[in-house]
Design brief:
This protein is of the alpha/beta class. It is about 45% helix and about 15% strand.
Length: about 160
């Protein structure tokens, strides 16, 4: 399941900066579980920012380096942006707008008890909104949506 540099892959978008230690302990594995589930469906592992640029594990990247790398990833190498709305995030809104400007479809994934910004929900590139009650539920519904969005349609 390797990635060719020319292949577009899903991008898992979710908050990292300023997360509490308690939240970091479950959210990063959740992002990775989402990537693994998507990878099983499409045969390519998504890009997961914390695996490359986590602010705690990789603090030496400058803001300009992060912007340049992630802007290129989203605008040129992303097939679908999966926004995991688990907490407020300034970066997530920027990533969603980069996707919109690059005609990349967006799926918003959030817990049923979370309120998601109307501005984000109104982004023209949003193709689906998935409200889940458990991580297992989220992964199941997301797999169906990823297959619908990215796999070839059968006649």
């Amino acid at each position: 399941m390797g990635n060719n540099d020319d292949e577009k892959v899903p991008y898992i978008c979710g908050p990292l900066t300023e997360l509490s230690l308690e939240m970091r302990e479950w959210v990063k594995p959740f992002y990775s579980q989402i990537a693994d589930a998507c990878g099983k469906i499409i045969g390519k592992r998504p890009f997961v920012p914390h695996e490359h640029y986590d602010p705690v594990e990789y603090p030496d990247f400058t803001p300009k380096e992060i912007d340049k790398a992630e802007r290129k990833q989203i605008c040129e190498k992303t097939s679908i942006l999966i926004v995991v709305a688990v907490a407020p995030s300034w970066g997530g809104g920027i990533e969603a707008e980069m996707a919109n400007r690059s005609n990349v479809p967006i799926v918003i994934l959030h817990h049923i008890d979370k309120i998601v910004s109307r501005l984000l929900l109104g982004n023209p590139s949003v193709v689906a909104r998935i409200a889940y009650s458990s991580h297992k539920d989220a992964l199941s519904m997301l797999k169906s949506e990823i297959a619908k969005q990215l796999l070839p349609k059968e006649d």
